[in-house]
Amino acid sequence: MQFADRLKPLGANVFAQMDRAKARALAAGHDLIDLSLGSSDLPAPSHALEAIAQALPDPVTHGYLLHHGTLPFRQAAAQWYERKFGLAVDPDHEVLLLIGSQEGTAHIPLALLNPGDIALLPDPCYPSHPGGIHLANGKIHWMPLTAENQFLPVFEDIPTEVLAQARMMVLSYPNNPTAGIATRDFFDTAVAFCQAHGIALVHDFPYPDWGFDGIAVPSVLQSDRDKTTSIEFFSMSKSYNMGGFRVGYAIGNAELIGALRTVKSVVDFNQYRGILAGAIAALTGPQDCVEITNQRFQTRRDAFVRALHGIGWQVPTPPATMYVWAKLPEPWQKNSMEFGTRLAEETGVAVSPGIGFGKSGEGYIRFALVHEPVRLEEAVQRIKTFLSATA
Q: How many angstroms separate the CA atoms of 192 and 215, rounded?
């Protein structure tokens, strides 16, 4: 059987490779400490679960849900943005329900790119970002994110001939995997740059509530208040620990929202209406759960970084997200995949090799802080044993 060429660039996936390594670790009898996936181990808000439970017996919720029926959710999303960022949002034309924000980042290239058009992507980045470009038969120009530049792209380094063919730029701050953050000044510059070159600015934004130590996380739409060129994707997975419920949404430029809706209309309907009742309850109900989650992960961050420093692995303290982006010690800086697979197979500690996020990720490892401090500290002790045995 013959398959489409567009599948070829999608074959390598860091999570799939690490999943096989985790399976081998379990088969060998290891107690698995999985720090490879950014899937929160904390529960969804109780008021969200109650709303879903109340919806279950209602047969009205059991049928297909078309776009018009998502209006209550879109109104709740618009109100959430207005409260959090002081932005006026039109729920009819500037909000679109998504099956997780990953659906948005994967499908927006289909709305923006003709074959051969260029997308500007950060390197490293989340794997669904280049995946969507490949499916749209677009080309990628990589924007390296380095520690020296605070993991921000340098727009002046993009060649003029690339800009002439560029149709979209993807950013994501707070950043996965680097945990870097962006300021309002940076977003002001990014918006002006995209406006000047006729480029759609796509901002993947799952971590608006994940600034630590009092850091306020800005929205790109605060720098594009008229929504001239920007679209932003939010997920319920992180702030509300609802990853498995697969609810996200897009907010931004009405034309971009409309184009993405056109793509979505031939791909799927929407989630179960009862799930959306839970999402609405999360967005409109008590928000103390969000702060509790933030504090839990800040405590984990502090414990994990302290433990790594204790074994001599000097990593920076991340200002945001649920990740620690750690530069590998010698002799592993040119083979993060081997480090990750061997660490899992020999100790039961699973991580995400940096190469899986792009060329500039080589030499790094991403740790997801999805366990309590005592478990994270145990993982560090196993890492210490592994490093000593492989030195």
A: 24
At 363-382, the pLDDT tens digits run 999 999 999 999 999 999 99
Q: Is the pTM of this model over 0.90?
A: yes
Closest residue by Cα to residue 133 from 161, 102, 107, 163: 107
- The domains located in the chain, with CATH, are 5-43+289-390 (3.90.1150.10), 46-284 (3.40.640.10)
Q: Is 221 exposed, middle or buried (0-12, 13-18, 19+ CB in 10 A)?
A: buried
What whole-number distance in Å separates Cα of residue 325 and Cα of residue 129?
A: 19
pLDDT of residue 12: 64
User: Which phi and psi (to 5°) does residue 123 adopt?
Assistant: -135, 110
- According to DSSP, the β-strands at 364-368 and 352-353 are antiparallel
CA–CA separation, 108 and 252 (whole Å): 13
Which pairing describes strands 33-34 and 364-368: parallel, antiparallel, or unpaired? Answer: unpaired
> Which residues on adjacent β-strands are paired with residue 203?
171, 232
CA-based nearest residue to 114, from 40, 178, 165, 38: 165
The b/e string for 89-121 (b: 16+ C-beta within 10 A; e otherwise) is bebeebbbbbbbbbbbbbbbbbbbbeeebbbbb
Beta bridge partners of 96: 250
Q: Yes or no: say if 297 and 369 are a contact pair by the CB < 8 Å rule.
A: yes
SS3 246: coil
Neighbours of 276 (CB within 10 A): 25
Where residue 391 falls among pLDDT bands split at 50, 70, 90?
Answer: confident
Burial profile 149-172: b = 16 or more Cβ within 10 angstroms, e = fewer: eebbbebeebeeeebeebbbbbbb
| Sheet strands (E) in the chain | 33-34, 95-98, 118-123, 139-144, 166-171, 200-204, 230-235, 248-252, 323-327, 349-350, 352-353, 364-368
Which residue in the block uniquely carries the two structure tokens 């000044």? Answer: 185
